User: Which sequence fits this backbone?
C-alpha cells in the first residue's frame, strides 16, 4: 500500500513511502524419493523382453563389457537375456578369444584389463546360480580355447595363461574355501591337470622339458602369480601339492619354482654342478616362505615344509652345497635356524658345520652382514643343553673350516682351466670370510 506524504516546506513536494511487509520466500517443493518396486523392475525388464532378440543384442553390442556386467544385475529377466547373449558363438569369438601371440606392451595392458572385466561380467551374471552350475557354465565358455589349455598352444611366449589367470582370480575373489575347492576340481577336470602332473612326477627329472615348462607356466600364471596375498597363494600351492607323496611334492616344487636356463629349460644339473646366483634361487625361496608363513591350511605344518626342503635339496642329486646355503640364507633367519637346529638335535654335527661354513661363504660373496652368521651360530649353540655339547659343536665347526679350506685349495691347484681358477677365487673368498666371521665372533664375545 503506497501513501503520499506532504512535506513541511512551502513548496509543495511529495515523497513516496512504502509500507513494509515481511514477505515469506516461496518454499520449494521437497523432492519425492521414489523407490522402484519389484513390479516396476519387472516392467523395465519386460520392455527389453518385448524387443526382438536381434534388436536387444544390437543394443548390447554397443555396450562395454563392464556396462553389460552392471546391466546384468538389474533383474533376473535381464540376467537371463544377457546369459543367452554371451553364450552365442559370435560373442565368444569376438570378446573372449583375443590375440595372445606377440602382443605389444600397450596391447598386453589392455587385454589384461579386458579379462579383468570379463571376470566381473561372468561373476555378476551367474550370481544367482549354485556354484556347480556357475562353474559348469563358465568353464564351458573357456575350455575350448587352446591358449588356455595345457599343452595345446605351441607358440612360444603365448600370454593366454596369464590372461586366464586374471579372469579366474577376478571371478573367484571373495569366494569361500569350499567354493575354491570346487574351482580347483573343475579346473583339474577340464585340463587333466592331475594326470599330466603325475606323468611328469613319475618320469626322470628333466626328461620331459616341454611338459615341465607347460605345467610351470599354467600353475604359475593361472593359479599362483595372480594371487594378491599370501593366504590365497598358500591355498592354491597346497592344493597342487596335497595329492602327492613327499618326494613328489619336492619334485613338483622344483618344476614350478626351480631356476630356469635359456629357452625356458629347468636347471636340474646346474644345482648339482656349480653355485648359482641368488636370483636363480629367489623363486624357490619365496615359495618356501609362502608355505612356512602363517599356516592357514589344515594338515599343513612347519614340519611339512622342513621335510619338503630336505627332499628338495637332493633332487635330482645332492645339490652343490653353496646352493643349499644360498637358499637357506634367502629363506631368512627363522627358517634357516629351524632347519639347522633340527639337524643339531639329531646329532648331525658334521653336516650342519659344513652347511654353516658355506653360509658364511655366501654371506661374504653376496654382501650380507657377517654378524648375521655369527648370531645364527650363537642361536644353534643354545640348542645344546650342556657346556660340553656346545664345545663339541664349536670344535666340529672349526675343524670343518680347516677341512673345507683344504678341499678348495687342493681343487684349485689340480689344474689350470677356467673352473680351477673359479675354485681358487672361491678359496680366497673363503679365507676372507673365515677371518671376518672370527673377527665378529671374538668382538661379540669380548663385548
Assistant:
Amino acid at each position: 500500500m503506497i501513501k503520499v506524504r506532504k512535506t513541511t516546506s512551502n513548496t509543495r513536494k511529495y515523497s513516496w513511502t512504502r509500507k513494509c511487509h515481511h514477505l515469506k520466500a516461496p518454499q520449494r517443493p521437497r523432492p519425492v524419493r521414489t523407490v522402484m518396486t519389484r513390479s516396476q523392475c519387472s516392467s523395465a525388464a519386460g520392455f527389453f523382453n518385448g524387443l526382438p532378440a536381434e534388436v536387444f543384442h544390437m543394443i548390447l553390442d554397443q555396450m562395454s563389457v563392464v556396462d553389460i556386467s552392471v546391466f546384468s544385475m538389474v533383474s533376473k529377466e535381464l540376467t537371463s537375456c544377457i546369459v543367452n547373449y554371451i553364450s552365442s558363438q559370435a560373442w565368444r569369438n569376438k570378446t573372449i578369444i583375443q590375440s595372445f601371440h606377440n602382443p605389444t606392451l600397450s596391447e598386453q595392458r589392455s587385454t589384461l584389463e579386458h579379462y579383468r572385466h570379463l571376470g566381473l561380467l561372468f561373476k555378476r551374471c551367474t550370481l544367482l546360480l549354485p556354484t556347480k552350475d556357475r562353474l559348469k557354465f563358465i568353464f564351458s565358455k573357456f575350455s575350448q580355447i587352446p591358449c588356455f589349455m595345457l599343452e595345446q598352444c605351441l607358440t612360444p611366449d603365448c600370454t593366454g595363461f596369464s590372461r586366464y589367470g586374471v579372469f579366474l582370480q577376478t571371478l573367484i575373489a571373495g569366494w569361500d574355501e569350499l567354493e575354491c575347492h570346487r574351482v580347483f576340481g573343475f579346473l583339474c577336470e577340464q585340463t587333466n591337470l592331475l594326470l599330466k602332473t603325475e606323468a611328469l612326477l613319475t618320469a626322470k627329472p628333466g626328461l620331459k622339458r616341454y611338459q615341465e615348462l607347460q605345467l610351470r607356466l599354467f600353475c604359475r600364471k593361472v593359479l599362483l602369480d595372480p594371487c594378491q596375498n599370501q593366504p590365497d597363494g598358500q591355498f592354491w600351492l597346497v592344493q597342487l601339492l596335497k595329492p602327492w607323496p613327499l618326494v613328489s611334492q619336492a619334485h613338483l616344487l622344483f618344476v614350478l619354482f626351480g631356476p630356469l636356463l635359456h629357452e625356458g629349460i629347468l636347471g636340474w644339473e646346474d644345482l648339482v654342478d656349480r653355485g648359482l646366483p641368488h636370483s636363480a634361487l629367489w623363486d624357490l625361496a619365496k615359495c618356501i616362505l609362502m608355505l612356512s608363513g602363517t599356516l592357514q591350511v589344515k594338515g599343513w605344518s612347519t614340519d611339512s615344509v622342513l621335510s619338503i626342503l630336505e627332499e628338495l635339496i637332493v633332487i635330482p642329486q645332492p645339490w652343490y652345497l653353496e646352493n643349499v646355503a644360498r637358499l637357506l640364507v634367502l629363506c631368512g633367519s627363522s627358517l634357516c635356524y629351524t632347519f639347522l637346529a633340527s639337524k643339531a638335535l639329531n646329532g648331525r654335527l658334521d653336516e650342519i658345520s659344513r652347511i654353516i661354513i658355506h653360509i658364511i661363504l655366501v654371506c661374504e660373496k653376496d654382501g650380507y652382514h657377517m654378524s648375521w652368521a655369527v648370531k645364527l651360530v650363537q642361536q644353534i649353540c643354545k640348542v645344546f643343553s650342556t657346556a660340553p655339547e656346545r664345545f663339541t659343536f664349536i670344535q666340529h665347526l672349526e675343524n670343518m673350516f680347516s677341512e673345507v679350506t683344504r678341499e678348495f685349495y687342493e681343487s684349485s691347484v689340480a689344474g689350470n682351466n677356467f673352473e680351477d681358477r673359479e675354485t681358487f677365487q672361491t678359496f680366497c673368498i673363503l679365507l676372507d670370510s673365515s677371518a671376518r666371521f672370527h673377527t665378529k665372533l671374538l668382538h661379540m664375545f669380548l663385548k
About this structure: The chain has 22 helices and two strands.
